[in-house]
Amino acid sequence: MNQMYFRFKHVVLLIIGFFFFLILIAKFVREDSEEYPDGANLKFPEDIRHATYLLNEAYTKIEALEEKIIHLESRIPKTYPDVKFLNYVNRKRVLITGGAGFVGSHLVDKLMLEGHEVIVVDNFFTGRKSNVEHWIGHENFELIHHDIVNPIFIEVDEIYHLASPASPPHYMHNPVKTIKTNTLGTINILGLARRLKAKVLIASTSEVYGDPDIHPQPETYWGHVNPIGPRACYDEGKRVSETLTYAYAKQENMQVRVARIFNTYGPRMHMNDGRVVSNFILQALKDEVITVYGTGDQTRSFQYVSDLVEGLVALMRSNYSQPVNLGNPVEHTINALSILKKCQAEFAEGGSCSEEYQCDL
């Protein structure tokens, strides 16, 4: 009997305790709802200030950690591609204007790997520092942010003058600047070469032939040009650049080289440079209709950038001083090129070439 009373007593106490527990919970909920209604955060500005202070403290500590990480990373030696060792007799100090651009950066790679000292001068209008960032900090490499429209004073053995916008959207963006780069800039570089008695290579273009009547164009062809057309700022600028080069060579007895560069493609080219290869690649990757102007039967030649660089270096090291065409002697129609780019895009996406293109890759 006593045992049954004991159990009943505990059950009653448990029920009473649970009842009081529910009362306490209801009380806390009611107090919270009264103290923190909608918009309650606006009634406690001191809490907001405290939270803002803590947040700012967190940001400060994060910034300090980021600075420490950057400092620690700077202490880790940067690795560079392996370069050949040249003694002081064979090692040349080479200046490349426009060396952060598409062609110039590949020329930088070749000369650096050969063991030469390379100085790049670029105003980064079309060039990009990312094209040469893998050499920044190397003892044989120097990067100078400079516009060659203004004179530059530096000591070098050879000069590759590549500085100039080369794609239609870029050189037509500021025609007067394009003309200045190819005239005043060339005068400054030729004057530097004259003072140093350095060999200089001037990068000209196939555009000096204008709208040619002959295909392909030999170096002896004088061209079919329009001095006031939309491309004249570039075409005539390069023609004047060649004229200046040979005037200096004759008057000052200088060693000059002139390379007339034809269509070139490869890594680091601008996707929006407005030329046919980049246009076709971009449209194919976007699965857009490839734009072909005219009938598409017009022919063009295309060379890979590494082949062009080999040609530039070979010309510089030769004893030939007349203009030289650097390009691919084999020409293709624009229609054939558009089909090829479409097929390559489909293969790149893991597909197969559509039957409508009849590609044999």
Automatic annotation (TrEMBL):
It is found in: Golgi apparatus membrane; Golgi apparatus, Golgi stack membrane. It is a single-pass type II membrane protein. One of its GO terms (molecular function) is NAD+ binding. Residues 94-325 form the NAD-dependent epimerase/dehydratase domain. The keyword Transit peptide does not apply. Keywords: Decarboxylase, Glycoprotein, Golgi apparatus, Lyase, Membrane, NAD, Signal-anchor, Transmembrane, Transmembrane helix. Its EC number is 4.1.1.35. Its cofactor is NAD(+). Belongs to the NAD(P)-dependent epimerase/dehydratase family. UDP-glucuronic acid decarboxylase subfamily. This is UDP-glucuronic acid decarboxylase 1.
